[in-house]
Specification:
It is built from 14 helices and 9 strands. It is α/β, with parallel strands linked by helices. Helix 6 links the parallel strand 4 and strand 5. The radius of gyration is 19 Å and the shape is globular.
Length: 369
């Protein structure tokens, strides 16, 4: 049954909701292996054994939002706030360029609207200084005019995870002033503007159900993004969910939780589900850029390798100034040194080669065949 579903997904690029759920709930090791190997074969058929790298520059941890799960939420008074100058960002681009990076990902908290000129100027100066490099932005919800300005200034990719497509679930993770409708509208605007657009979810977030994840898969199937980011949820000590899984032991049928093989929430299955989702999306979108995320590497020593063997084809070493990496604290224990850093690129190359892959330095644009 599961192998037939995998074959159908590989051939037709979609399943019905019950088919996705069956893949996610599968607990047969051989069938799970078949899912991952099919996705891996698809990725190799499209990209060979190449893994693309992106240099991640965390330009600011200032954020106007107060998302309940995020360590840089505006109400957190326990972190030092920073905002990199344009010259500081350009210096990191130079450092990365010398080491082979040809894509720079500018990530940050959701800055005020008057930061648009800073972002626009930054894009123009990176485009002028590094004309053969791609610029990816991950700066949250902006105005339509803002997205257009950044695009015209040289940014070509934009990452904006929708986090969850379920309105009720969204409302339990975000303050009342934020809305799922706005997030989805921003994604449509990015697509229509011309960006290679990325979205994705947190796997195992509070109150998440299997139905929520299936709904997310169906939505992403409609959106047809060029990039898909999937990361396991990791709590942060300075948020309302800091002790959620240690202090709240939900009963088997607690509200918002699934009972699976004796476990009471999806948090327990974060790695398993993240890898399954990487494989599912690789089969749905053979050409997509799918990272093996820092969050996966944070909770599993071989997380980046697991993601690649499940079908991922992108890694994002941290290129931020070393002195501020600890302040960009989205969740506890975020990996940003060693093989997760630009300085550790040689170590990363060695680890990837051990599983039969190699890092390439070209931009790796999305290019549907």
């Amino acid at each position: 049954m599961i192998t037939e579903l995998v074959d159908t997904l590989k051939r037709e690029k979609r399943l019905d909701a019950s088919g996705y759920r069956s893949l996610l709930e599968c607990c047969n090791a051989d069938e799970i292996s078949y899912l991952h190997s099919s996705a891996q074969e698809t990725a190799i058929g499209r990209f060979g054994h190449r893994i693309y790298i992106r240099g991640l520059i965390e330009i600011t941890n200032i954020c106007r939002n107060d998302c309940l799960y995020c360590g840089i939420r505006k109400s957190n008074r326990n972190i030092s706030r920073y905002w990199l100058s344009t010259d500081e960002v350009l210096a990191r681009c130079s450092f990365g360029f010398e080491r082979g990076f040809r894509t720079f990902v500018l990530q940050g908290g959701e800055m005020p609207d008057d930061a648009d000129s800073y972002i626009e100027d930054l894009c123009r100066r990176i485009r002028a200084g590094f004309p053969d490099c791609a610029i990816t932005l991950s700066l949250g919800e902006r105005r339509e005019e803002s997205y257009r300005r950044f695009f015209e200034a040289g940014a070509t990719r934009y990452l904006l995870r929708h986090e969850t497509h379920n309105v009720s679930h969204y409302s339990r993770l975000h303050p009342a002033e934020m809305s799922l409708d706005k997030r989805l509208h921003c994604l449509e605007t990015l697509k229509s503007t011309g960006y290679q657009t990325g979205t994705g979810i947190m796997v195992g977030s509070p109150y998440q159900t299997m139905d929520n994840i299936v709904e997310d898969i169906v939505y992403i199937g409609r959106l047809q993004p060029e990039m898909i980011g999937l990361g396991p949820f990791i709590p942060h000590k300075d948020t309302v969910f800091s002790g959620w899984y240690s202090e709240h032991q939900p009963s088997a049928n607690a509200e918002g939780m699934d009972n699976y093989s004796g476990r009471t929430d999806l948090y327990d299955r974060r790695i398993d589900l993240t890898m399954k989702l990487i494989s599912i999306f690789r089969l749905m979108f053979p050409d997509a850029l799918i990272p093996s995320t820092t969050a996966l590497a944070t909770i599993s020593a071989d997380g980046r390798e697991k993601g690649i063997l499940a079908g991922a084809n992108v890694l994002m070493p941290n290129l931020s100034p070393e002195n501020i990496r600890g302040d960009y604290s989205l969740y506890d224990g975020k990996a940003s040194s060693g093989a997760e850093s630009a300085e550790g690129l040689d170590a990363l190359k060695t680890r990837i080669e051990r599983i039969g892959y190699h890092i390439v330095t070209d931009k790796g644009d999305y290019n549907r065949k």
